[in-house]
Amino acid sequence: MNSKQVLIVDDEVEVTSFFTYFLKRKRCQVTTAHSGADVKRLIAEGSFAFDLAFVDLKLPDANGLDLLQAIKHARPECDVIIMTGYSTIKTAVTAMQRGARDYLEKPFDNLEALERIVLPILDEPTEPADDLSQIAAHYGILYAPNSPMARFMPLAAKLAKKAINVLIEGETGTGKELLARFIHGESVRSQHPFVGLNCGALPQTLLESELFGHEKGSFTGALKERRGFFELAHNGTLFLDEIGEAPLMIQVKLLRVMETGEFNRIGGEETRKSNIRFISATNRNLETEVERKRFRSDLLYRLEGVKLTLPPLRERPADIAVIVADYLEKKFAGACRLGSDALALLQRYEWPGNVRQLLNVINQSVAIHECPVLGAEHLPSFLHSHTAAALDSRGVQTAYPPPSPPAPASARQLTDIVDQEAERFARTIINHVDRVENLPFDEIMARVKQLEREVGRGIIEKGLAETRGNREILSRKLNITKRTIRYILNEK
C-alpha cells in the first residue's frame, strides 16, 4: 500500500482522532484541521501537498462545498471525500458533481463500508483500473473519452453502490433505461431481478394490476392469481419509466409502498412485504408537474433520492462516431462503415430524437443503399438541408430559412393513405380480437391509444427535423399550437 499524505478536516476531536488512528495503521501521514481557517492557512502557506482529504460538510466557520473547491483549486489531483451527518443525499451528490471522490455518512458505524470506500483510494494500482467506458458499453452506454458522459458516468457508478432511489431525467431517446440497467448491474442488488414498467403505456386499472398483482376472481378476466412487479422485483430494482404519466391514484398507492414496504394484491387480504430499490425515469419536469397539481410532491421527494440528468446527443457530438461504429458492427457485422463526410454531417445535426433517432437514420440508410462505406450522399435529405441552412461559408450558424410549403397534391394523397390504412388497421383488430384469449377490452384500447401517441410523436419529430427545430414554423405547418407540440413530445 502506497504511503499517502492525508488531511482530516472536522471540528469534532473524536472524528479526527478516529481517522488518525485508522489511517496511520494504513501507513498514511496524517494532518488534522478543525476549521475552514486552518485549511485556508495550509493552502496559503503553499505546502498543500495532500493526496487525500476528508472534509466535514458543516464547519463552524466554513461550508464543506466551498472548502472542496478551494482544495481542488490548490491541488486538483487531491481526492476529496465529504463527511456529513447533516445533509441530505442530494447535497453529497452535489459535492461529487463539484469534484469530490465520494462521501461518507456519520456516524461511521460500519467499518467495512468505510474501508470499501477508503482503501481503494489509499492503494491505487499502478496500472489503470478497468475503463468505466468498457463497463458502461456492456449495458449499451457508449461515449468518447472527451464526452460529457465521461464526466457523468463516474458519478452514476458511485451512486449505483449507494442504497438510495434514483430519478433519471432526460429527453426521449437519450438512454434512460440503459442507465437504469447500469445502476442496477453495478449495485449490490445486481444478482436480484431488474423489472421495468412503462407507466404511460397502460390505463390505470391495468397499471395497478401490473404493480400490485391480483388474486383469482378479483375482477372480470382474473382467471388465476398473478404476482405484480412489487413481488417480482423483491430484493432487486423496480424501474418505473415515464413516471410522470402515472395517474394520481396510482401515485398515492405507490407512495405508501415506498414508505412502508407493504402492499396487498388486488382482491387480496394478505399484507405482503417487498424490499425494492426504485429507479424512475421521466422526460418531463416533475417540479413543474407538481406545481400544476399533476404530480404529488411527497412522491417526488421519495423518488428523487438523487437526480441524474442525461445530456442530450446534441451536447455530445463526439459520441456519434462511437455509437454508430458499434451499431454498424453489431447490426451489419462490419459490412458497412461510416465515412468521414457522413460523420461530419451527423455531428452538425441537433437530433431532437437523440440516440434513438440517430440509429433509426443509420439503419434506414444502410438498408436502402447497401454500401460498404456510408457516405454523406447516402444520408437523408433533411440532414443536408439542415447543414446548408445552418452554416454560412465560414461555418458560422445562421438563421434557418422557412421551409418550402408542401405540395397540395402530396398532402391530399397522404390524407387518402391515412384514411385507408386506419380503416384496414381497425378492421384487422375487429376481425381478429376473438382469437386473443382473455385479452381485456381496456388493454386492447390502451394499446391502440399508445399507437396513436407514437404516430403523433413520430410526425412531430419528423417535422422538427425538417424545420430544423423551429416549433413556430412547425405549428403553422401542422395548424396546431406550440403547446400541443410540447404536449405530444412529452408523451411516451
Can you give a write-up of this model?
The chain has 492 residues and is an alpha/beta fold. It has 21 helices and 18 strands. It has helices at 13-24, 36-44, 64-74, 89-97, 111-122, 132-138, 148-160, 176-185, 204-212, 229-232, 248-260, 286-291, 297-303, 319-332, 340-348, 354-369, 381-390, 408-432, 441-466, 471-478, 482-490; strands at 5-9, 29-33, 52-56, 58-59, 62-63, 79-84, 102-105, 166-169, 194-198, 213-214, 226-227, 237-241, 262-264, 271-273, 277-282, 306-309, 337-338, 373-374. Helix 2 packs parallel to helix 3 (64-74), helix 7 packs across helix 8 and helix 14 crosses helix 16 (354-369). The longest helix is centred in the last third of the chain and has 26 residues, at 441-466. The model is unreliable at 126-130 and 389-410 (pLDDT under 50).
* First and last CA, distance: 51 Å
Mean pLDDT: 84
Shape: globular
Report the total helices. 21
Helix content: 40-55%
List low-pLDDT spans: 126-130, 389-410
What percent of residues are in strands? 5-15%
How many beta-strand segments? Answer: 18
How large, in whole angstroms, is the Cα Rg? Answer: 27 Å
The helix/strand class is alpha/beta
Defining traits:
492 residues, alpha/beta, 5-stranded parallel beta sheet
List the helices and strands and how they pair.
Layout lengths: L4 E5 L3 H12 L4 E5 L2 H9 L7 E5 L1 E2 L2 E2 H11 L4 E6 L4 H9 L4 E4 L5 H12 L9 H7 L9 H13 L5 E4 L6 H10 L8 E5 L5 H9 E2 L11 E2 L1 H4 L4 E5 L6 H13 L1 E3 L6 E3 L3 E6 L3 H6 L5 H7 L2 E4 L9 H14 L4 E2 L1 H9 L5 H16 L3 E2 L6 H10 L17 H25 L8 H26 L4 H8 L3 H9 L2
Parallel strand pairs: 1-2, 1-3, 3-6, 6-7, 8-15, 8-16, 9-12, 12-15, 17-18
Antiparallel strand pairs: 4-5, 10-11, 13-14
Helix pairs in contact: 2-3, 7-8, 14-16
